[in-house]
């Protein structure tokens, strides 16, 4: 429940706003706004049709026994044909590695530490954490004499790996029995739907039956995008009309999955900025609605590797709204280093579980701190 | 989440205000803080370095203005340096020698190209032009459909070939151009696939789409939340096609927006538009000076006024000011004005535009969640009580609390707070028309917030 202090501040805030408006508008003798200026609108009341119109085709009977129960996903075997994450990242990340080489080659002096810090900052790790790492590294190496380039590199690697929780559970949780539900959330444009396509493909590949809930009822054609991924991944889609209540879609999808003994339900949601309270509440409601019938086993926050320090704020706000259980770091196939994910795991304790490394349906890999750091430094 | 660049600089300058003339050492300190603040705001490192060097130079050569305090001088310098990077004027779209004017949207995946394309089309249409949208994102599933639906919503035709293969994007673009030419459209807005700037094939494809559609305007669409990578993205796109401007999207979040600085600095191209919401009307011309002011914690008074003018009429605002002056403001007025202010957008956003409000010790979202409760309490009062909260005794308080689903304490808080504000108003208007913002700052209550510990 909101605290009373919040109430007082809210009143003060409104008064301030009113006074400011009175002050500025009451005084300025300005022309009225041009006629075509759009009138300001109240904050997002997304259409909320509660109409329940599941257009899902009549189901086939699934009589097969579900695959043997596993509590956790196994890491997919690394197939030789596909380049590893490190390989893919090597090219894109030469920049950082080159920078590091350059810094280390020059020999160790005062500037070495500043430059090392700069390298980390440019990976979006954040100035505060970069400074902390550099200071630690420095105090560690100042004691050891004659730390050469390779010693500094090794120490930095260790330092970076230590930022991750070595005990963290990075595999996705499955229900011991019944329907497993994963809820996928994030700000706009981070790659939620694409990630869901990849997750669905991985699951059907392992012989699981998968349904996708089209709870992004806001963005134009979001359901059709999801359907295309479902077709590729051989999964089903449960959807309502555009503009329908996303909670109702998730609820129906759960009912559907439960009735048909589907193994995995992945709920797609509309992208939303974490600053929009009504939309964050809506997300919490989707979760609650599913939990009325079953359980939500993972709340996956999709983070864009190109995001800067705001990624940390996003993770904090989404966690506050509905308890994020894991991070999917997408778009690691560019030059962005995804350093903000390090900060997220380190400061919020939310494990990074998966990384997205391309637009192909198989371009999703389990996250491994060591290879992530190696890819950064080698 | 107001601990933004504005907040950081605010903090530095609050500290400086207490001091006299700036020594060189103090300038160094300020510059160090500015460097940190900019890095925390995701401004790319190399841009930060150049910026700080620039400010140092300006500081060294600056004339001492007697009328300015040292802090004001630094603010002025930093502001000027910011505006120099962001651009001095609001840049409009490039003119085209003959119609149709072709505008190409390019950018990374998820930066908001399709939405920005539709918003831009809507904006042009509202200016009386006849835009055509071309759906040349043939890679992302349902991207064509998305643009078609958006086109329907805004009543702008869309040239779409849903069955074309991804490689056919340049052909679709050139056919769209032919349609735009023959059917007398004034503008053609070409939506393209999102692409990674390191993907040579897709970057070449972008060039082909550009060659086929002959744009006069190539807008690089960039997410305001982008981090250090903004410079790499900007450089790569600029190397491939003749970027003429930038669209900064998702500016309605709380990202510190350092990418705006990085992008303008690296490309030397102006930011032309800002995406500020999910509705198709939420695209605004980008105002560099306002952005610079915002960054500096000087508020964004111009935007505030613009928004206010849409929500209030002049007479109403004047009447309100008079009432405030005379301290005749009732809870009814408060309720009415609250409704009007709400029309301007989320309270948190509005507060962010008010000078000096950058440090309000309140989470951005809290205010907006509290408003319905405030409203409920006032609505549970009788007209008499609203006019004179003094009437409210114990039993009335209980009735109001029960009626609004709040507690007696909440009702108390509201009336007390309201009383205090009225008292403050009275003393302010006695102070010779000094209803200024310095007075309003008193509302912040907490005074200066605890300074976060700083390293170095």
Helix content of chain A: 40-55%
Question: So what's the overall shape of chain A?
Answer: globular
Helix count of chain A equals 12
Instruction: Name the average pLDDT of chain B.
Output: 81
Strand order of the largest sheet of chain A: 3-2-4-1-5-6-7-8
SSE order and pairing:
The complex is a heterodimer of chains A (about 375) and B (about 450).
Chain A: H1 4-27, H2 85-105, H3 110-122, H4 127-143, H5 149-161, E1 180-185, H6 192-205, E2 210-215, H7 222-233, E3 236-238, H8 246-259, E4 264-269, H9 277-293, E5 298-304, H10 310-322, E6 326-330, H11 339-348, E7 352-356, E8 364-366, H12 369-377
Parallel strand pairs in A: 1-4, 1-5, 2-3, 2-4, 5-6, 6-7
Antiparallel strand pairs in A: 7-8
Helix pairs in contact in A: 2-3, 2-5, 2-12, 3-4, 4-5, 5-12, 6-7, 8-9, 10-11
Chain B: H1 5-17, H2 24-40, H3 45-61, H4 70-86, E1 101-107, H5 113-126, E2 131-136, H6 143-154, E3 158-159, H7 169-182, E4 187-192, H8 200-213, E5 217-223, H9 230-240, E6 245-249, H10 258-267, E7 271-275, E8 283-285, H11 288-295, H12 301-311, H13 314-325, H14 331-343, H15 347-353, H16 364-379, H17 383-387, H18 394-404, H19 408-430, H20 437-441
Can you describe this structure?
The complex is a heterodimer of chains A (378) and B (456). By secondary structure, chain A is an alpha/beta fold. Helices cover 47% and strands 11% of the residues of chain A. Chain A contains twelve helices and eight strands. Chain A has an eight-stranded mixed sheet with strand order 3-2-4-1-5-6-7-8, with helices on both faces. The radius of gyration of chain A is 24 Å and the shape is globular. Chain B has 20 helices and eight strands. Chain B is α/β, with parallel strands linked by helices. Chain B has helices spanning 5-17, 24-40, 45-61, 70-86, 113-126, 143-154, 169-182, 200-213, 230-240, 258-267, 288-295, 301-311, 314-325, 331-343, 347-353, 364-379, 383-387, 394-404, 408-430, 437-441, and strands spanning 101-107, 131-136, 158-159, 187-192, 217-223, 245-249, 271-275, 283-285. In chain B, helix 3 (45-61) packs across helix 4. In chain B, helix 10 (258-267) links the parallel strand 6 and strand 7 (271-275). An eight-stranded mixed sheet of chain B has the order 3-2-4-1-5-6-7-8, sandwiched between helices. Classes of the chains: A alpha/beta (378), B alpha/beta (456). Chains A and B meet through helix 1, helix 2, helix 3, helix 4 and helix 7 of A and helix 2, helix 6, helix 12, helix 13 and helix 14 of B.
């Amino acid at each position: 429940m909101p605290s009373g202090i919040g109430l007082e501040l809210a009143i003060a805030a409104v008064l301030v706003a009113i006074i400011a408006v009175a002050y500025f508008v009451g005084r300025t003798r300005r022309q009225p706004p041009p006629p075509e200026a759009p009138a300001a609108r109240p904050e997002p009341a997304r259409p909320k049709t509660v109409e329940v119109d599941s257009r899902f085709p009549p189901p086939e009977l699934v009589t097969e026994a579900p695959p043997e129960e596993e509590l956790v996903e196994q890491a997919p075997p690394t197939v030789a044909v596909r380049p590893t994450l490190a390989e893919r990242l090597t090219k894109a990340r030469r920049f950082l590695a080159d920078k590091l080489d350059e810094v280390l080659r020059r020999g160790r002096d005062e500037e070495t530490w500043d430059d090392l810090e700069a390298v980390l900052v440019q990976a979006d790790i954040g100035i505060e954490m970069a400074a902390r790492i550099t200071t630690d590294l420095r105090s560690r190496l100042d004691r050891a004499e004659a730390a050469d380039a390779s010693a500094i590199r090794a120490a930095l690697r260790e330092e970076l790996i230590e930022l991750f929780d070595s005990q963290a559970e990075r595999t996705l949780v499955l229900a011991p029995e019944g329907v497993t539900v994963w809820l996928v959330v994030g700000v706009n444009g981070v790659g939620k739907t694409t990630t869901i396509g990849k997750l669905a493909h991985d699951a059907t590949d392992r012989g699981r039956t998968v349904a996708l809930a089209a709870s992004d009822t806001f963005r134009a054609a979001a359901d059709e995008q999801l359907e295309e991924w479902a077709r590729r991944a051989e999964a089903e889609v449960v959807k309502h009309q555009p503009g329908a209540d996303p909670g109702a879609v998730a609820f129906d999808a759960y009912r559907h999955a439960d009735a048909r003994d589907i193994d995995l339900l992945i709920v797609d949601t509309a992208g939303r900025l974490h600053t929009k309270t009504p939309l964050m509440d809506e997300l919490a409601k989707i979760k609650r609605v599913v939990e009325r019938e079953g359980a939500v086993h993972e709340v996956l926050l999709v983070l864009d590797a190109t995001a800067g320090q705001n990624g940390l704020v996003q993770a904090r706000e989404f966690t506050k709204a509905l308890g994020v259980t894991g991070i999917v770091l997408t778009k690691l196939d560019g030059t962005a280093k995804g350093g903000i994910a390090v900060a997220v795991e380190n400061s919020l304790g939310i494990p990074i579980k998966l990384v997205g490394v391309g637009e192909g349906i198989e371009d999703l890999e389990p996250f491994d701190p060591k290879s992530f750091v190696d890819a950064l430094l080698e | 989440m107001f601990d933004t660049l504005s907040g950081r600089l605010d903090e530095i300058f609050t500290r400086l205000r207490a001091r006299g003339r700036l020594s060189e050492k103090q300038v160094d300190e300020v510059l160090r803080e500015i460097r940190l603040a900019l890095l925390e705001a995701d401004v790319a490192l190399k841009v930060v370095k150049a910026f700080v060097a620039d400010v140092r130079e300006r500081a060294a050569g600056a004339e001492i203005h007697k009328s300015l305090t040292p802090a004001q001088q630094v603010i002025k310098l930093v502001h000027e340096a910011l505006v120099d990077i962001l651009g001095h004027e609001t840049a409009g779209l490039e003119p085209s020698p003959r119609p149709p004017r072709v505008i190409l949207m390019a950018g990374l995946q998820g930066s908001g190209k399709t939405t920005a394309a539709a918003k831009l089309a809507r904006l042009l249409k509202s200016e009386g032009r006849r835009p055509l949208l071309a759906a040349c994102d043939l890679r992302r599933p349902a991207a064509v459909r998305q643009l078609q639906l958006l086109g329907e919503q805004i009543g702008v035709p869309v040239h779409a070939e849903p069955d074309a293969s991804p490689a056919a994007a340049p052909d679709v673009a050139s056919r769209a151009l032919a349609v735009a030419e023959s059917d007398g459209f004034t503008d053609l807005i070409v939506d393209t696939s999102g692409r990674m700037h390191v993907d040579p094939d897709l970057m070449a494809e972008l060039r082909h789409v550009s060659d086929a559609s002959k744009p006069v305007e190539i807008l690089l669409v960039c997410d305001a939340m982008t981090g250090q990578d903004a410079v790499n993205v900007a450089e790569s796109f600029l190397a491939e096609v003749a970027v003429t401007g930038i669209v900064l999207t998702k500016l309605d979040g709380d990202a510190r927006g350092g990418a705006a600085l990085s992008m303008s600095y690296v490309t030397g191209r102006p930011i032309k538009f800002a995406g500020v919401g999910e509705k198709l009307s939420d695209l605004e011309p980008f105002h560099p000076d306002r952005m610079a002011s915002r960054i500096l914690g000087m508020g964004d008074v111009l935007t505030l006024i613009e928004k206010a003018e849409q929500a209030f009429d002049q007479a109403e605002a004047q009447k309100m000011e008079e009432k405030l002056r005379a301290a005749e403001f009732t809870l009814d007025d408060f309720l009415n004005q609250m409704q009007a202010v709400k029309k301007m957008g989320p309270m948190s956003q509005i507060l962010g535009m008010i000078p000096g409000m950058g440090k309000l010790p309140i989470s951005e979202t809290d205010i907006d969640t509290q408003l319905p409760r405030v409203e409920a309490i006032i609505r549970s009062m009788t007209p008499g009580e609203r006019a004179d909260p003094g009437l409210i005794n114990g039993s009335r308080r209980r009735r109001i609390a029960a009626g609004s689903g709040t507690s007696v304490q909440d009702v108390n808080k509201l009336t007390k707070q309201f009383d205090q504000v009225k008292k403050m108003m009275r003393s302010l208007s006695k102070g010779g028309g000094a209803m200024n913002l310095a007075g309003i700052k008193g509302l912040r209550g907490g005074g200066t917030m605890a300074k976060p510990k700083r390293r170095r």
